[in-house]
Write a structure and sequence with these properties.
mainly beta, OB fold (Dihydrolipoamide Acetyltransferase, E2P), 2 domains, 5-stranded antiparallel beta sheet, 3-stranded antiparallel beta sheet, 0% helix, 45% strand, globular
Length: 132
């Protein structure tokens, strides 16, 4: 996951759900399609905001456009109006997001718990590594 700044929001023709986000990741820009047209009275209100995006996905064609990532939001699976997952302060575009817990000590080994995005959501991935 990486932080990106949403530069523009446009409607996707022939779709009642999708909007197209032009997102800056610092050294490059991507188009990311998001199914949030019905979730906000004015989807353009997120222009200029930073948010988390999943960027290690293969491009996918939807409604005649290609999406080069996925917007990470909070709340949809719990049945509430989703909000953006965003940094508390401004960080450089392209900054990697790591969901690393404090170290866990087992049998005198340092264990880190990392999260990875799967098709069904987030899952944990434990690795023996140095601290984050």
């Amino acid at each position: 996951m990486r932080v990106g700044t949403i530069l523009s929001v446009t409607d996707v023709a022939n779709s009642d759900k999708l909007i197209a986000l032009e997102v800056s990741f610092g050294d490059h820009k991507r188009t990311v399609l998001a199914g949030m047209k019905r979730e906000r009275a004015n989807p353009r209100e997120i222009e200029g905001k930073q948010a988390l995006f999943v960027v290690n996905l293969a491009p996918r064609k939807m409604a005649g456009m290609v999406s080069e990532g996925m917007l990470f939001d909070i709340g949809y699976l719990d049945g509430i109006i989703p909000v953006l997952a965003m940094p508390e302060t401004h960080v450089p575009d392209g900054t990697r997001a790591g969901l690393c817990s404090p170290t866990l000590h087992r049998e005198k080994r340092t264990v880190q718990v990392f999260w990875r995005v799967t098709g069904s959501g987030l899952s944990t991935c434990r690795r023996r590594t140095s601290p984050c």
